[in-house]
Amino acid sequence: MIKNDIALAIEKNSEFNRAKSLLIVESILKSLKAALEKNQKVEIRGFGSFRVVDKKTGFGRDIRRKKQIKIEKGKRIKFRSGQELKNTLVRK
After folding, report:
1. To which H or E segment does residue 34 belong?
2. Looking at CB atoms within 10 Å, which of 44, 55, 70, 86 has the fewest?
3. What is the pLDDT of residues 20-60, one digit of tens each?
4. Segments making up each domain of the chain, as ranges
5. pTM summary value
6. Strand, helix or coil at 78?
7. At what angle do helices 18-37 and 3-13 cross, to 10 degrees?
8. d(C-alpha 2, C-alpha 10), whole Å
């Protein structure tokens, strides 16, 4: 599913046209991105939560050259699914 598919679903389930639906989707994603950039936790009840975590410096393996390489520290986004989403997926 891509952004346009989500906008289409909003269009079908509401009185908004495609342009307005796409604007809604982009506004939501922009808000999520802004919150994560500020290291804020984003929680959508029933769906899940997103948070930024620090990644430690470590070592990996370059398979082609068969050498050990250093992986620099950084940040990553972690997603934890909500109970409602888990229950929906388990039933299928």
Report:
1. helix 18-37
2. 70
3. 999 999 999 999 999 999 999 999 999 999 999 999 999 99
4. 1-33, 39-92
5. 0.74
6. strand
7. 130
8. 13
Q: Is 39 left (phi over 0), alpha (psi -120 to 50) or beta?
A: left
Phi-psi region of 4 (alpha: psi -120 to 50; beta: other; left: phi over 0): alpha
Strands of the chain, DSSP E: 42-44, 48-55, 58-62, 67-71, 74-81
39 and 45 in contact (C-beta within 8 Å)?
Answer: no
Report the CATH fold assignment for 39-92: HU Protein; Chain A (4.10.520)
Identity of the amino acid at 38: K
